Amino acid sequence: MDGDAQPDQHGDLRNDLCIVLTYYSPYVSGLTNVARDLAEGLAARGWRVCVVASKHDPELPTHEVVHGVRVVRAPVLAKVGKGTIGLNLTRLALREMARSTVANLHLPLVEAGLLARLSPVPVVSTYHCDVSLPTGDGPLVRRVVNGAQHRAIDLSSGAALRRSVAAVVSSEDYARHSRLWPAIDGRMVAVPPPCPPRGPGRPAFRRGDGLHVGFLGRIVEEKGVEYLVDAFLALDDPDARLLIGGDFLDVAGGSVVERVRRHIGDDPRIAMLGFVPEEDLDDFYASIDVFALPSVNAFEAFGIVQVVAMMAGVPALVSDLPGVRTVVEETGFGVVVAPRDVPGLTTALARLRDDPPDAGAGAGAAAARYSVDAVLDAYDAVFAKAAGR
């Protein structure tokens, strides 16, 4: 496609593809990273790509071009749970969709149902995961709001999926276990998220020669970090270390960092690293022997970080959840344990310490199956077919 954005008869920019989602870079999450890598990857191939998202940080510009991608951000009136409230996202998205050949909605997205209904161009929806918001404890008002938001997002996502020409999912395993499977069925296309490999790093985070276990992700309830902490504490190994990296200061839906700290107590073997910047990620992966993803619910649908770790030669210890387990099952590079199974996690850590799998074979299997180019090729085909229809 023509990489130079061309104005139409009204002087407006034309897009080959319009991507719409709630949070976009520099916000960091698995969903955001997929959209960013897809947008920038296709832009590098010559596509004219526009991303419409909420202006989650008021300091961000409303319009900018980032790595060849035109980004339009809608001001936010308020944040509710993991979502945002704003009057302009739908209007701006429809404007850019009208200038496009095809639209790609990244769900969950509360505006998705209306956007798909009003879209003047074919819609491809990428369904990342079922939304998960705490409704069983906490203040009554928060539980009521979360419950209402939960139902509204499911209703909107289901409506969007039914009006989409294709529903892209990270794996058939996850899709078939999703609450929205009835809306996905019949239009499903399984495409894993793009997983850019890391470069070589220095073991700058290591402290000694013992087993080093790493976690990287937002410190939120669905990640199950406290179960990993409890399992590590039960590991009878004074030389082992647990490195917990991830944001807990600006997290949609709220962080559980204080809960994790209570579980850690005063054990000096465990380090809370906070947000690990991009320039330090290579060193983080080079510093660990096992990557742990102890997620506890279906909000975690794939776990890109486990693939990135595998590509760096680090085996993964992951929860037995639809989609998450798929990577270890397909590569054989790691261990799968039931969610919240602390003794099982401890046993798995000891197993990976005492009998580590072949790092070279595991890295090769992950790279072959989840390369960025293969994912971009698959999306290119889906979008081309949608536009042809």
From TrEMBL:
<keyword id="KW-0808">Transferase</keyword>
<dbReference type="Pfam" id="PF13579">
    <property type="entry name" value="Glyco_trans_4_4"/>
</dbReference>
<keyword id="KW-0328">Glycosyltransferase</keyword>
<dbReference type="InterPro" id="IPR028098">
    <property type="entry name" value="Glyco_trans_4-like_N"/>
</dbReference>
<dbReference type="InterPro" id="IPR050194">
    <property type="entry name" value="Glycosyltransferase_grp1"/>
</dbReference>
<dbReference type="Pfam" id="PF13692">
    <property type="entry name" value="Glyco_trans_1_4"/>
</dbReference>
<feature type="domain" description="Glycosyltransferase subfamily 4-like N-terminal">
    <location>
        <begin position="30"/>
        <end position="193"/>
    </location>
</feature>
<protein>
    <submittedName>
        <fullName>Glycosyltransferase family 4 protein</fullName>
    </submittedName>
</protein>
